[in-house]
Amino acid sequence: MYIGEAAKKSGASERAIRLYESMGLLKVSRAGKYRVFSAADIEFIRLIKEGQSLGLQLTELKELANGEQDFDWIKVVQLLAKKQESIVSQIKMLEVQHSRVDEYRQAIEQCNY
């Protein structure tokens, strides 16, 4: 299948797929000047998109790729653990910020502006 159909099946835009390829994250076979995508390529594109939806950057995903259309899953688990720690930290910071905003809002309301 060609890039248009690959985009439809994977949920990624043609532009995103070209970006993945230009970064060396995705290696697609060619027939002349056309990219020819296999079912495995589509699944790998979906994995890339899923990683992005979890907050992973393309550069991070490239570092996790083991050169083939697959990832070093041990490194993936380690990176996801770090991301999870970062998210917990962000949640704590937002909870503190939320509490402070509430305190200021209540203080201002008590002043009868």
From the structure above, extract its key features.
single chain, 113 residues, mainly alpha, Multidrug-efflux Transporter Regulator, Chain: A, Domain 2, 5 helices, MerR_fam, MerR-type_HTH_dom, transcription regulation
Give the helices and strands, then pairings:
Blueprint: H1 3-10, H2 14-22, E1 29-31, E2 34-36, H3 39-53, H4 58-64, H5 73-110
Antiparallel strand pairs: 1-2
Helix pairs in contact: 1-3
Domain HTH merR-type: 1-67
GO molecular function: DNA binding; DNA-binding transcription factor activity
InterPro entries: DNA-bd_dom_put_sf, MerR-type_HTH_dom, MerR_fam
Tell me what you see in this structure:
The structure is a single chain. Helix 1 crosses helix 3. The chain has a two-stranded antiparallel sheet with strand order 1-2. The longest helix is centred in the last third of the chain and has 38 residues, at 73-110. The protein has five helices and two strands. It has helices at residues 3-10, 14-22, 39-53, 58-64, 73-110; strands at 29-31, 34-36.
